[in-house]
Amino acid sequence: MQLIDQYLPAFQFQERHTLISDLPPKILLDAVMHPGTTEDPWAKGFIRLRELPDRLLGRLGAASELSQRPAFSLDDFMPLGRDADRELAFGLLGRFWQRDYGLVRLQEPRAQFARYTEANLAKLVLNFSTEPTPEGRTKLVTQTRVHCTDGSALRSFTPYWWLIRPVSGLIRRRLLTRIHKVAGSLHE
């Protein structure tokens, strides 16, 4: 069973993107964690745009959680595990529709994430997995699943999902390309 299935078997939202590579699975998954791999200029630009209202309010003297922290990134995700050369999984808890994302951190994410059930919250698992192809190549897959813990969270998250979904898909596809490029440099 994949880690993503262990941590978030039930979900209301999902996106999946793939890239075919000649590189071995281990190198591809190692590249995900290589410094700088996830730092895409387009992703940074979209995140800046998404965070702009809250950061501007902070500069104008209003309460702003984001003005006290770096821009949102993969560093905000909690590591949930690695299954050898098959999968890496990361979790995120929050109220992503709020200006400051409403993030919740867990002390022991691997032990707590699957059973965490706070009201009005979205649980997100992002994974990177590898699958062999019949031609002997490697399929690199990224999948994002989101489960809203109750009707209130679902009503709040649904319009947010439809707004960010096209950008999220673009970021994920660019991320796969960056992972492949970094993996290629590690494999040389």
Describe the model.
There is one protein chain. The chain is an alpha+beta fold. The protein has a single domain (3-38, 69-186), classed as 2-Layer Sandwich (Alpha-D-Glucose-1,6-Bisphosphate, Chain A, domain 4), CATH 3.30.530.20. The chain has helices at 3-7, 25-33, 41-59, 109-112, 151-187; strands spanning 13-21, 78-83, 87-94, 122-132, 138-148. Strands 1-5-4-3-2 form a 5-stranded antiparallel β-sheet. Helix 2 (25-33) crosses helix 5 (151-187). The chain starts with a helix and ends with a helix. The mean pLDDT is 94.
Write a brief structural summary:
This protein is of the alpha+beta class.
List the helices and strands and how they pair.
Elements: H1 3-7, E1 13-21, H2 25-33, H3 41-59, E2 78-83, E3 87-94, H4 109-112, E4 122-132, E5 138-148, H5 151-187
Antiparallel strand pairs: 1-5, 2-3, 3-4, 4-5
Helix pairs in contact: 2-5
Q: Architecture, according to CATH? A: 2-Layer Sandwich
Q: What's the N-to-C terminus distance?
A: 32 Å
CATH topology: Alpha-D-Glucose-1,6-Bisphosphate, Chain A, domain 4
Radius of gyration: 17 Å
Q: What is the H level of CATH, i.e. the homologous superfamily?
A: START domain
What is the 3D shape?
globular
Major beta sheet, specifics? Answer: 5 strands, antiparallel
Q: What's the oligomerization state? A: single chain
Q: For the residues shown, what is the average pLDDT? A: 94
H/E element string? HEHHEEHEEH
Q: Figure out the total of helices.
A: 5
**What would you call the structural class?**
alpha+beta
Total domain units: 1
DSSP strand content:
15-25%
Level-1 CATH class name: Alpha Beta
Helix content: 25-40%
Low-confidence stretches: none
Give the strand tally. Answer: 5
Give the strand order, joined by hyphens, for the main sheet: 1-5-4-3-2
